[in-house]
Amino acid sequence: MRQLNVFFDVDHTLVMWNGQLRPHALEVFQRIKEQGHTIYVWSGVGIRRYDMIKHGLHEYVTGYYVKPLERYKERLPDYKVDVTPDFVIDDYPQVIAAFDAGYHISDILKKDDAELLEVLRLIELCAAESEPTADETTA
To answer: In CATH, what number is assigned to the domain containing residue 63?
Structure first.
């Protein structure tokens, strides 16, 4: 199984409009880390470490970045994002389209919202289906 760099947006992805954490976030972060993946948090409005500390997720996060607001992939160096996102979770479909894998999450909570559980399932599938690159096989 390939180890992925998983990038989560904050507003309307992990933290909803009312300041509440999306259901299943802690469980999903725990499982992602247990599976050996690396979690990063980014936001177009700045570094969101405080939000992750407030909601008990900080210990699972390896790094924080400011997310580009346009030309997402091309502008990563401009924002000093020195890790390649392998799987991106965001409420903007344009961000997902810019990367090879990800999940466009609804910005509105549904009753019994389980979208993060679907994210976990897709991360597991992506990791299982991914072929290691030449760099990974020689490391």
So the answer is: 3.40.50.1000
